[in-house]
Automatic annotation (TrEMBL):
PANTHER family: PECTIN LYASE-LIKE SUPERFAMILY PROTEIN (PTHR31339:SF3), PECTIN LYASE-RELATED (PTHR31339). Belongs to the glycosyl hydrolase 28 family. The lineage of its organism: Eukaryota, Viridiplantae, Streptophyta, Embryophyta, Tracheophyta. The keyword Secreted applies. GO terms for biological process: carbohydrate metabolic process. This is Pectate lyase superfamily protein domain-containing protein.
Length: 456
């Protein structure tokens, strides 16, 4: 797999700057190169497969003129892959050009490969867009009761699927959907750009995703998913265009990517209120590493739909610019479930409304059937090595009176406000934990602690 020029430069600069502080000026450039290949990664959870069998979308009548509708070509090509079942699977190659199509499904043991200059573009017409049942852990569409529009590129019950290429583009042309949302003329929940349901061994890499109608990349009820070397773009005012949303999924790796959208860059979820509690599938083993981005909402988020539980999340080496909130852990009464063992480390935040927010009063409910006494358990939240400049408020931690947040640990955190303004402050309630080398000093509920387990 090839790195994009942007990511190659970013990684080189990172290691060059890191080594300069600890190495002499005589250190050779080869040390930086070797450092790239020793960079920690979780991407090996899904081995990349080089498939020998290959077909082109043009073999099935695909025309990349930006006008011709290619739905038949994509669906026939996938049908061929599904039914011929070549050993090792098949590559569906999309050459340079703009291929307009309606939504289409993928199949197991295939690679969707976009060449340099290839664009798969969604048709802007909702009349023939297929509807599917709501996710059982949500009980209804996320936006509206009833079903939901299928994602532009969809996979259900699949194994061994790769979506990759040479920085080609998958364009959801979301304007039509955003305008319907703004005008309140939507009949059902908008489609995601790419969604995998009940699937495993998925790789999404080396592509540009832009203008999603709703969430961009949504693995739900999945296991072993890698999202790496991707760029995800949407206007800042585009509604609910989350970057990557691992949802009731395990072993998910998100690395080396740039995301600039209208909502959370990465949001870990696990179902909504009574439906998520009943479905009972947590998100676990989520790693987010070397992510850069911008959003009016959150950079790294957990929630607010966490009713199946979220545990064992690691986010590190994150660079955030022009943010609403840097790190946001969010839940609400009626959610139930748990959020535990969350670690966020080595984060740079520049120009943000708020640095850190951990709150128990965020997000609505699917209907009136939720149990307000179903209180979430939030414990074991570690946030360390965070540096923020131009941050209006340092942090807000609001636990629940009958379910306080516990074992919250903040260490080596510095937030600086706008030039000429007062220092950013903290506000807390119903929380217990520790703090070490935090500036400005957080709320009194977090006790001062010398270096130890909290500060590692």
């Amino acid at each position: 797999m090839l790195l994009s020029p942007f990511l190659t430069l970013t990684i080189l600069l990172f290691f060059s700057s890191s080594s300069s502080s600890s190495s002499s000026s005589s250190s050779s450039s080869s040390s930086s190169v070797s450092a790239i290949y020793s960079t920690p990664t979780c991407s090996n959870i899904v081995p990349f497969k080089n498939r020998t069998d290959r077909i082109s979308i043009t073999d099935y009548g695909g025309v990349g003129d930006g006008r011709t509708l290619n739905t038949k070509a994509f669906r026939e090509a996938v049908y061929r892959i599904e039914h011929l079942k070549r050993p090792g699977g098949t590559v569906l190659y999309v050459p340079q050009g703009v291929y307009v199509t309606e939504s289409f499904n993928l199949t197991s043991h295939m690679t969707l490969y976009l060449a340099a200059g290839a664009v798969i573009k969604a048709q802007q017409d909702s009349r023939n867009w297929p509807l599917i049942a709501p996710l059982p852990s949500y009980g209804r569409g996320r936006e509206l009761p009833g079903g939901r529009y299928i994602s532009f590129i969809h996979g259900d019950g699949l194994t061994d699927v790769v979506i990759t290429g040479e920085n080609g583009t998958i364009d959801g042309q979301g304007d039509m959907w955003w305008n319907m949302w703004r005008k309140r003329t939507l009949k059902y929940t908008r489609p995601s750009l790419v969604e995998f349901v009940n699937s495993q061994d998925i790789i999404i890499s080396n592509l540009i995703f832009k203008n999603s109608p709703f969430w961009n990349i949504h693995p739900v009820y999945c296991n072993n998913v890698v999202v790496r070397y991707v760029t995800i773009l949407a206007p800042r005012d585009s509604p609910n265009t989350d970057g990557v949303d691992p949802d009731s999924s395990s072993n998910v790796c998100i690395e080396d990517s740039y995301i600039s959208t209208g909502d959370d860059l990465v949001a870990v979820k696990s179902g909504w209120d009574e439906y998520g509690i009943a479905y009972g599938r947590p998100s676990s083993g989520i790693t987010i590493r070397r992510l850069t981005g911008s959003s009016p909402f959150a950079g790294i988020a957990v929630g607010s739909e966490t009713s199946g539980g979220v545990e064992n999340v690691l986010a590190e080496n994150i660079n955030l610019f022009n943010m609403g909130v840097g790190i946001h852990i969010k839940t609400n009464k009626g959610r139930g479930g748990f959020i535990k063992n969350i670690t966020v480390a080595h984060v740079y935040v520049e120009n943000a409304r708020q640095g850190i927010k951990i709150a128990g009063d965020v997000g609505g409910h699917p209907d009136e059937k939720y149990n307000p006494d179903a209180l979430p358990v939030v414990k074991g939240i570690t946030i360390r090595n965070v540096w923020g400049v131009k941050v209006n408020r340092a942090g807000l931690i609001n636990g629940l009176k009958n379910s306080p947040f516990t074992d919250v640990c903040l260490s080596v955190i510095n937030f600086h406000g706008m030039a000429g303004s007062r220092a950013p402050n903290w506000k807390c309630s119903d929380v217990s934990g520790f703090a070490y080398q935090v500036s400005p000093w957080p709320c009194s509920q977090l006790h001062s602690q010398e270096p130890g387990s909290c500060a590692i």
